[in-house]
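Same chain as my last thread, 199 residues:
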Amino acid sequence: MPRLTDAGGKAMPLGMIGRLALAGALLVMGGCSTLLPSSKETVESPWKSFDEAKSAYEKIIPGITTMADLKSLGFDPVASPNLQILTYLDIAGTVQSIPLDKLDEGLQECLRARINCRAYVFEPKRLHTRRIGNFWLDFFNFRRISSETGWRFKALLVLVDGHVTYKLWSGAPHIDEMRDQRNPLGPFQGAHDLLFRLL
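reply #2:
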């Protein structure tokens, strides 16, 4: 039977072998958190941060900025991924509870222009979600802790005949959320729901 030896070729005592095995196991257990899953959600855009997106948005001037200007600022209705395109009917449905004379002039112009009006919704974002905590509790579904960080920006741009008439933005400049889900029954937590579905 082969025996473990040290660097000098001498046989290692069984006690030392046991201590090395224990140390190796502890090392593996300590590093198990790196085995937890993580994910990234990114809508590609020219901007690497919320501030960059907001800065580009602020350069848009209703009544002056053209479609060509938007492309140079990064708001490209042709190349931008996950772009939402709205018609004047979508705009009308959104603001139907507001009297026409109370609407922003840019929106009024859109509704009057009808088919010559187009609106675009840009939603660039960068989100990183990762699970943290104890690997075994997570693996057996007793406790799952996840952390989400990043940013999200949303811009609505309304154009009539190739010129911006209205703009609006919203978003979250600094997302830092923690979710802690505890399941006392571990892997059997949802078993009763499955049973009811089978009955």
